[in-house]
Specification:
InterPro entries: DUF998. Keywords: Membrane, Transmembrane, Transmembrane helix. This is DUF998 domain-containing protein. The chain is mainly alpha-helical. About 65% of the residues lie in helices and about 5% in strands. It is built from 7 helices and 2 strands. It has helices at about 10-15, 15-35, 60-80, 90-105, 120-145, 155-180, 195-215; strands at about 5, 220-225. It has a two-stranded antiparallel sheet. α3 packs parallel to α7, α5 crosses α7 (about 195-215) and α6 packs antiparallel against α7. The protein is globular, with a radius of gyration of 20 Å. The N and C termini lie close together (about 5 Å). About 35% of the residues are buried.
């Protein structure tokens, strides 16, 4: 009589999600240090933007936090793909775009306030816009795709909720950006640093939900038969 016997995933596959969550935790710690230690970053978290940390004495901590988030997101992308949760090529591309745009934000610093506009600053601006939008799009689309699956309904619901909750915080950035850069207008940016930080908290929470979702989706990678 033939019966299936599960094959345990390889050690590398089992470490994808723990590695991603560890990277996210490290990034959160570094961001907390930047917000609490005024010697590293003498910035007002209510009025100054997150990108201003790249111009502070603690800029290396900021860069490492972005690199950890990007690397952890890449591991999470592989885990979600291998476990069948993110099989849609468009979703894979959007998640990869989130990873790449985070790298660009780390590599290309913003222009100082009131300074000359440089190519580096423009790249940073465009990369920041993509970063803010790409992850909520992934979270919403992934949740919508699995909303009727009884196994994943709870994860899908939270994924959609967090993604939709982040969008209102994104609008104060994208509307002036579209008017000023795309349409050539002169609309002032009304968003504050507090708005951006609230959006960051929602996106970190979304990453945590996706990570736990990928962890719960771990299943045997294949089966073999035996007598």
């Amino acid at each position: 009589m033939l019966c299936p016997a599960p094959v345990r995933p390889s050690l590398r596959a089992r470490l994808l999600v723990p590695g991603a969550l560890a990277a996210f935790a490290g990034a959160v710690v570094l961001l907390a240090v930047l917000h609490l230690d005024r010697r590293l970053a003498p910035l007002d978290p209510v009025s100054t933007m997150l990108s201003d940390y790249a111009l502070s004495p603690g800029r290396r901590l900021w860069d490492v936090a972005l690199l950890l988030t990007s690397g952890g997101s890449a591991l999470l992308l592989v885990a979600l793909y291998r476990r069948g949760l993110m099989a849609n090529p468009a979703l894979v591309a959007a998640k990869a775009l989130w990873c790449v745009s985070l790298l660009a934000v780390a590599l290309f610093a913003k222009d100082p306030q009131g300074g000359a506009i440089t190519a580096t600053g423009k790249i940073h601006l465009y990369a920041s816009a993509v970063t803010c939008l790409s992850l909520p799009v992934v979270g919403w689309a992934l949740g919508r795709r699995h909303r009727d699956d009884p196994r994943w309904r709870r994860f899908a619901t939270w994924s959609r909720r967090l993604a939709l909750a982040a969008i209102p915080f994104y609008l104060p950035f994208i509307v002036p950006f579209a008017v000023n850069v795309v349409l050539g207008g002169h609309l002032p940016t009304v968003a504050t640093g507090l708005v951006e930080r609230l959006m960051m908290v929602l996106e970190i929470a979304l990453l945590a939900v996706l990570g736990y979702w990928a962890h719960r989706a771990m299943r045997p990678a294949g089966v073999h038969v035996r007598a």
